[in-house]
Amino acid sequence: MTEYTAQCRYDEGQRLVARGTGASIALDGYAAGNLVTEPYLSPDDARIFARGILALADEVDGGEAKGAAGTRPQVGNRVRVILGDPNHSGDRFVGRVGTLIGDDGEGDNIPFLVRFGPGEHGATDGQWYCAEVEPVDEPAAAAPLVTTPGPSRATLLEQARQLLNDSATFDADDLIKLADYLAGDNA
After folding, report:
1. What span, in angstroms and rounded, lies between the C-alpha atoms of 130 and 93?
2. Could you write out the three-class secondary structure of the chain?
3. How far apart are CA 98 and CA 96, in angstroms?
4. Which of 16, 32, 53, 146 is the most buried (most CB within 10 A)?
């Protein structure tokens, strides 16, 4: 099985080894060559931990977290779910796009409240807390365009003819111009 080792930069006798053990990830901590701790994490918890380490490294040296990729989404942003709630929803919401309506802060393991539709909390078309989201540029789905038809061209021409009937002289161009004026933005 694959192992990853992180060597202490100050003491060669201290290191951490991450390794897969069936359904868990073991983090073996060594001091003076002796195993001193061996916590087992679920794959979801290991991912959250690994992302946290990457974020800390970026804070320390100004790495990749700067700029758009490392910007924490703001309430009101459109977001895509990267990691749902590992304790309840699992991957049910992963990949879905919604609107961020709440953020409990960086100290919370599942801070992002995302609304996917008008449903209740926990419903597929409702809102749900998610562990990780990313901003997206996709606009919200637009409401269907509903137009109310205006009067027909024949009706507008008849109205124009009636209005110009009292006029001394008018021609077809006058009639069409007045019909267009009556139509307004519907012309």
Report:
1. 8
2. CCEEEEECCCCCCCEEEEEEECCEEEEEEEECCEEEECCEECHHHHHHHHHHHHHHHHHHHCCCCCCHHHCCCCCCCEEEEEECCCCCCCCCCCCCEEEEEEECCCCCCCCEEEECCCCCECCCCCEEEECEEEECCCCCCCCCCCCCCCCCHHHHHHHHHHHHCCCCCCCHHHHHHHHHHHHHHHC
3. 7
4. 16
> Which tokens in the block code for residue 116?
């996917």
Q: Give per-residue pLDDT as tens, 57-74.
A: 878 877 754 444 557 888
Residues 6+ away with beta carbon under 8 Å from 91: 84
Residue with token string 């304790």:
87
Distances (CA, A) of 140 to 17, 131, 132, 158: 44, 22, 20, 43
Angstrom distance (rounded) from CA 25 to CA 18:
7
| Parallel/antiparallel/unpaired status of strands 34-37 and 15-21 | unpaired
State whether CATH 2.30.30 applies to domain 73-135: yes
**pLDDT: is 75 or 12 the higher one?**
75
Strands 3-7 and 97-103: unpaired
Res. 112: pLDDT tops 90: yes
Q: Report the 10 Å Cβ neighbour count for 43.
A: 12
